[in-house]
Description:
The protein is of the alpha/beta class.
Amino acid sequence: MTAEALGEAFAARRLSPLEVTRAVLARIDRHGKPVNAFTRVDAEGALAQARAAETRYAAAAPLSPIDGVPTTIKALNYVKGWPCQRGSKLIDASPVTEDAPVTARLREAGAVLIGHTTSPEFGWKGLCDSPLTGITRNPWNHAHSPGGSSGGAAVAAACGFGTLHQGSDGAGSIRIPAAFTGVFGIKANFGRVPVYPASAYRTVSHVGPMSRTVRDSALMLNIIQRPDPRDPTALPYDGTDWLAGIDAGVRGLKLGYSPRLGRHKVHGDVAARVDAAAKTLAALGAIVEHSDPEIPDCAHAELVIWSSATAKLHASLPQDRLGELDPGFRAMAEIGKRWTMSDWYDADAVRIALGRALELYFRRYDALITPMMPTPALKAGQDLNDPAAEQTWLDWSPFSYPFNITGHPAASIPCGFTAEGLPVGLQIVGRLHDEASVLRIARGFEHAMPPVFPELD
């Protein structure tokens, strides 16, 4: 059931938060081990929160529309009383003493916090395996990765291990796993959701919701966007209701469709499914034009930004235990050690040029649509899709990171399957600060092509 449906059922006393939480915990217990989506399941805490929500509904005093709704938090974010090791053996396992802003807002709204979902070490790559928790697997095919770094959240959404799921996205980490597992996820505009402690990847890292439906993500965004004084980079809170206008449809909207962002190779099945999605949007009344944004090549700039942050993080860790780190993380840090301050400023100049080019593009279009990923889900446990042609994981995700560099809102919505039965995602990118259009387009497409999810039983 959706979060909206659960909230309505709780208010009408047709269901209780306690029985729903028990059902979710039983589902995790029955089906969770093969996919390995959680670093921690707090059954006792979740049941206590569900009982409190049940009491509030009995008194007709729910805290919010998501009061009592089972929710997960990505293991990079603080939950008071839980350890937060961020996928690394090098981080102390002592419980933290405060909630991250996203956790605090969800707790204040009465969400039932089920557990921490898996991430690669420090969220450094677009896959989901770590030295601490091992490999998280794609529920559609366990030989494949769900993608990352919010891989555990995506798997939890696909498998029904809760209803609302928090993700974060520094170079595609919400959208990659959403595409690989067939769920919806939106990287909100940079600063929309307050963050604390600050990500190691700073201004390319965004927070957003993941869920089975677009409306549930909009509902969750209403909650987690609320202000927190610990993040001075957050946007001013204006109380926008992201559900308002979400069902207006796409008729009359002008969409630029870039099948390759001008230059990138795309798997045949992926290209076919995304092209069909563009035709569906046109059939729904959108004006869809093939149009590549004239953006600069930002691959080197992204490598400088990403690897520099990784190197900085690497230097802060216990130097006598570096052998316990993910080897790929260490290799990325070594790349980051090459750069000078001049290299970083050159990368920042590309960031500015890229942002300017996109905003000029969005003077002509309401949104940009592209493939989310150029390839189906990678095999589990491997960092590269084509080792002969790729240096780092960034090389196989060229549609994701440009919009982290610029801060634009972007989402992935499922648009079909490859011949092997692996999900394909359509990316929708909006103007700066315009999550509303992204959500509206996604909802219009979802109405025409409802998602399907793996059968576990």
